[in-house]
User: Which sequence fits this backbone?
């Protein structure tokens, strides 16, 4: 940041990647951490909120392994295999930048850092809800549905392109048994 390079920071980290089975999908677990907000304020960087939805829906958290011997209360989930009918799209959302220049580098100010953190969290939670709404109405959300819909569309296209209209003269339309001599 001191070299004015762009930086990608994911607040939350391992806690959010390896959520225990009792924590709902897409729950932000930032607690009272302010590090990313302080860094952004210190260097005057805007925070660009972003999120994705879909990955956590593919994973089945079967049960937790308690690792209190490493850290008090630590537990991690054991993941089941990703089954074909769970494979699905991942939806990405990028929100409006949240400016920090107005704080004039005062990164030690807890109120400023909390404001940036809370504004970022609210934006990301709104983005998650928006992507979940899009996900819920997408007929091609799951890979198997996408393949099925694509095959159906392809067959419909082939069927309609093979349908030709042939004009048959009226006298040829009358069955032979009905013709008079």
Assistant:
């Amino acid at each position: 940041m001191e070299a004015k390079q762009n930086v990608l920071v994911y607040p939350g980290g391992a806690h959010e990647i390896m959520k225990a089975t009792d924590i709902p999908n897409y729950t932000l677990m930032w607690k009272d951490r302010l590090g990313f907000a302080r860094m952004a304020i210190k260097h005057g960087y805007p925070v660009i909120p972003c999120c994705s939805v879909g990955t956590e829906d593919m994973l089945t958290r079967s049960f937790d392994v308690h690792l209190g011997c490493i850290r008090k209360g630590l537990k991690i989930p054991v993941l089941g295999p990703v089954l074909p009918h769970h494979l699905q799209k991942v939806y990405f959302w990028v929100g409006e930048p949240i400016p920090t220049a107005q704080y004039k580098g005062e990164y030690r100010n807890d109120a400023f850092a909390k404001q940036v953190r809370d504004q970022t969290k609210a934006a990301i939670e709104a983005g998650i809800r928006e992507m979940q709404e899009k996900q819920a109405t997408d007929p091609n959300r799951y890979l198997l549905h996408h393949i099925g819909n694509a095959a159906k569309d392809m067959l419909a296209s082939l069927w309609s392109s093979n349908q030709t209209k042939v004009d048959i003269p009226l006298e040829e339309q009358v069955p032979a048994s009905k013709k008079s001599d």
